[in-house]
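Case study B.
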Amino acid sequence: MAESLEELEARMTALRGAVRGALRARDKAALARSRSELRAAEAAWHTVLGVAPDTHPAAPDPAQAVPIREQAVPVREQVHRALALLGAPASPKLISSVHEAFFHGPLVVPQLAALRRDEERAALAQGSAGAVAQARRYHICAALTHDRLAPARGLLALSTWPLERRVLGPLGPRTDFLTHAGRLAEHAERLRVSGCAPSESGGRLLRRFALNIPGAHEDEHEEPEPGRIIAAVRTEAAMHGAADDRQRTETAARARAQLSSAQQLFGVATLGVVRRGTEA
Amino acid sequence: MLPQQPEDRLARLRGPASPEPYTARKITALTANPACARRAVLDAAGVDKALLATRIGFEPRFGQSPFALTRGQAFETLVAWGGYAELVSLLRTELAVPVTEAAVADLTEVAGNSAPAVRARETQRLLERIAAGDEDRLILGHPMLTLDVAGRTAFLEPDALTHRIGGRFYAVEIRSFPAIDGQADPARTAEAVKQAAVHVIALRQAFHRAGLPPEAVADEFLLICPKDFSNRPYGRLLDLRQELDAVEFQLGRLRRAADLTETLPADASFDLAEDSAGSPVRDAGELDASVGALEAAYSPSCLSFCEMSRYCRQEAETAGEPARLGSGVRNDLPGIGSTRTALGLIDGTVEPEPEQAEIAELLRTAARLRDLRGGGAA
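Model:
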């Protein structure tokens, strides 16, 4: 317990502010986290003061703290999980349904939509562009359009992915769709091998993918078969592969040459594009 | 190009308010009732018809149901899900598009900017590049097209375009009414066909501007609706030629909307502005007289799409117009402007004009038959 009374009090004030903010933003995860931290700080404050903290709601005892931490996974962490599974830029809605199908419950879609903006603000607030990538382990960032290098509408991506995976050419929506389908089918296959029955929503999601890939699914009423989906995805992906890869490599090279590291994550700001657009 | 004078007249009629935009819906409403000079002039002048109707005491009592709107959007989202995955597989299974074709362009916004003019420019640029063979797209989502209507630019947004069926461009309309066993509601299909015709005409104009052959735009369009009772999309190509002719004729006629204003008295106005005290510049009586000076062609079907319809119905009732009782009655009484004249012809108080002799004879026969059957509830 290295903190002094003053430091603890300052931290408690900050945490109370955070609790208020989380309440306002209706962010349950952040609220639970701030409150448990606040209780810990209060307990520490009592200890330093030499008063027994019994009169207060008890400091989180280690046994209880585990479930709280489990349900209080921050939204960005949840998005990260879903995106890491999907393997390509995805819409908030898809991220939410993947989280519902393979993790714990759906995510709040509007909250996800706001996440990218918050992440961009946080990244810019961290100062010099060079430090952006290092400041956090990862960012939830944007996919970039191939022509203007602007953020693609309504897509979230991970900053840890190479630029090639985050740019979106004409074939991009289709190849990303195939990547999603393949990755989810592989995950379902892993679950099956390990003896876990896939959830109902997981089966539904997989069927929706499978119905739209030639050869992946014949009978609408049967359970989709992961192995067959994976094979069908590979067949179609091979057809688009060459053209799509060329486009991605070329766009990524252009983005690296023209954009700052923050812009590589979040795209060219709209204002700049408008100026360029009117010149053209 | 329009002469400056009539365009000025239309703007003067509207007053200082900015003109209401032309939409595909307005253009198709005009084709539904081509004889209506009242709607033609009010739309050409860009008058806010709902407000005008309210001012003269006939507040319109309809609008699109929020449930229908939500349903429509939900179905469209479903078709566009996963990079238009559903639409792509529909094109593959129904229209034999090869699997190698999968390029998509989303024109809902241009780098975060969704202003119609910016999107229209981007659409035009992409169309030119595709037609020239520099780019490949199977699907263009939410393109923005422009159409000159009565000297003003209307922005039109088809749900999608596809150009990979026999190398021609097809408009795609996504509607949420179901096709059960391949049969969809005829009235709603007809409405979709009309809107598609407007979109195809706009697309052909875009081709014309780019110096490309307008024949590259197909005479058919792809209608997509939910299959049976499911949420899976179903699509069919529908012929547009008849509607294209009808809409083109209407658009040609619209350019003469300015001429229709010549019958209006010099002091006519549809100015809906309010002065600084918040009271209307023109009172209801003045507006009423101006609207009344325009000739309408009321029929009961107007009630389902026109904001002015209740005013026109009242007017038709007062004048005893046969059309008030439906187009069937109107067609049975050719050359007779009023139900009062018809009744007069039957009981002999009105002497038929020479050209009315035949219909007068028919009416009397019908009345005799009715009397024979007991007069009352025939």
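Residues 4-22+29-55+264-319 of chain B form one domain. The remaining cases will be described in the next quarterly update.
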